[in-house]
Amino acid sequence: MVEDRITDGRRIAELLSSEIDGREDGELTHFAVTNADRDVEPTADGARAYDVTRHDERIARVFIHEERAHLEFETGQDAAAEAASDTDLRMRPKATAPPKTLVFVESGAEVKQATDVVQQVSRRLEKADE
User: Fold this and answer.
1) CA within 13 Å, CB half, 117
2) Distance in angstroms between the alpha carbons of the first and the last residue of the chain
3) What kind and span of H or E run contains 48?
4) For residue 87, what is the DSSP state?
5) Most buried residue, 16, 26, 60, 104, by most Cβ within 10 Å?
6) Measured distance CA(121)–CA(110) in Å, rounded
7) pLDDT tens, 36-79?
8) CA distances from 25 to 18, 37, 93, 99 (A)
9) Which residues pair with 60 in a beta bridge?
């Protein structure tokens, strides 16, 4: 049996970019993919591929590894952690100043869950803006 699971970090990041930038429903209408590095090569620690912006403000950056991608949330870190847990995506805090939350996307099938995380973060930020 052939396994069709996409586990190439570059391809996962491309799928995620298409979902974030291409969909015009829900919270995704507020998002764009910006500052894309089209020549980026995957690394063990993850190489920055592009930024995810909401109303022209960067909330996350996407990094690619050989076999996965990850989002590094700079804004809405707690919301990202909670949403990742709710969608069964692996995550971990990053102890930096300011702190960040990493959400790992380990297959093409997890891209939809990752966009759910982005949307939940957006809803939380929207409430904070009110």
Assistant:
1) 34
2) 52
3) strand 47-54
4) T
5) 60
6) 17
7) 999 999 999 999 999 999 999 999 999 999 999 999 999 999 99
8) 13, 26, 29, 30
9) 52, 73
